[in-house]
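Is this the right way to post structure tokens for a design question? Let me know if I should format differently. Anyway, here goes:
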């Protein structure tokens, strides 16, 4: 099979979508598959070829993303195969599927935050209100990461309901062997001995002001309350308000390399994930792979990932500061039963990138057949 794929998400600081594209490429690239990556950018393209796994290759010249998106929002020209060369299917991995010419088309819609929580996304993401329905119209299959997003896509775009394919994300095997940071790593990263952790971009959808309000309340009740480590690259939105928090009660690490990230999660008392909305949510799954408990917003997709077992995670109503603070207090103050950490790992082991790739191949076949 000849596969063209948008690899633009591999540029810059890795995000959840970047990790999805990298992991999917690694699984799809095999001796029987010709995988061609296309990057829609005029800059920062130089090191991208080194980001592709063996068996995948970067093709085409630098391309102006915004100009092409504006054109593709109105027209079916130029087809992306003018850049990728002849392919059986082209996969738009990040909400946008260009015109595909004679090739079949597949688009990944990671979430509908641009419709469900538009106040939390960037102006560029708001353009998906036009680009996504156009892309869905071109696609023979619409890939989504969860049943929750599948239901939302079917509701918003009823004509696509029979073309939606759910491909849950995976967790890298190295997470299962991650260990807490040693003393040298703690000193280098400025980590306390005991801490809670948040992992993700610092952006409005993650609802970090709620988490800071809960942390402020708990620090006021207990001077020995564990610090909160916010781990992830800066995103957008208002600056975080840490007024009223004791010195050291919140630590910001910024973006961390993968081995540091895994170690920080593995050493945490719990991972906290208070999002207003998610399409999947890799951090809770990765925490489970380390055996670490999760305190998260009770969203339909969160239950898809962590399940309903109250011993494995604590789920709270989104936006409820009191409920979040109470759940954290119970988690920190409770000794876990023997074997719970192993049950979390077992849950996470059910999510693999090889399964993601297999379901994606099925979506490619569906799109090719429908062409």
């Amino acid at each position: 099979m000849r596969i063209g794929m948008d690899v633009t998400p591999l540029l810059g600081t890795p995000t959840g979508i970047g990790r999805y594209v990298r992991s999917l490429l690694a699984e799809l690239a095999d001796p029987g598959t010709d995988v061609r990556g296309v990057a829609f950018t005029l800059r920062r393209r130089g090191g991208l070829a080194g980001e592709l796994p063996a068996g995948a290759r970067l093709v085409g010249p630098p391309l102006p993303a915004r100009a092409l998106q504006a054109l593709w929002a109105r027209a079916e020209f130029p087809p992306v195969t003018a850049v990728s060369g002849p392919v059986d299917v082209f996969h738009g991995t990040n909400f946008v599927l260009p015109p595909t010419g004679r090739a079949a088309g597949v688009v990944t819609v990671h979430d509908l935050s641009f419709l469900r929580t538009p106040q939390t996304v960037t102006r560029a993401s708001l353009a998906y209100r036009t680009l996504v329905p156009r892309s869905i119209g071109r696609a023979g299959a619409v890939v989504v990461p969860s049943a929750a997003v599948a239901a939302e896509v079917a509701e918003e775009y009823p004509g696509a309901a029979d073309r939606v394919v759910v491909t849950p994300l995976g967790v890298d095997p190295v997470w299962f062997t991650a260990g807490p940071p040693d003393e040298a790593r703690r000193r280098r990263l400025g980590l306390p001995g005991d801490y809670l952790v948040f992992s993700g971009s610092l952006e409005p959808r993650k609802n970090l002001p709620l988490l800071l309000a809960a942390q402020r309340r708990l620090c006021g009740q207990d001077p020995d309350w564990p610090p909160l480590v916010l781990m992830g690259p800066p995103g957008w939105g208002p600056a975080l308000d840490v007024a009223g928090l004791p010195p050291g009660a919140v630590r910001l690490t910024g973006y961390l390399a993968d081995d540091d990230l895994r170690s920080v999660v593995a050493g945490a008392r719990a991972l906290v994930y208070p999002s207003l909305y998610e399409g999947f949510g890799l951090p809770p799954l990765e925490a489970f792979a380390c055996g670490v408990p999760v305190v998260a917003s009770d969203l339909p997709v969160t239950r898809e990932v962590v399940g309903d077992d109250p011993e494995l995670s604590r789920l709270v109503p989104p936006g409820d500061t009191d409920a979040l603070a109470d759940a954290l207090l119970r988690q920190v103050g409770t000794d876990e039963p023997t074997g719970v950490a192993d049950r979390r790992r077992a849950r996470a082991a059910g999510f693999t990138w090889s399964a993601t790739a297999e379901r994606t191949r099925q979506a490619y076949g569906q799109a090719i057949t429908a062409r």
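Format looks fine. Someone answered above. Worth noting: The longest helix spans residues 353-370. The mean pLDDT is 95.
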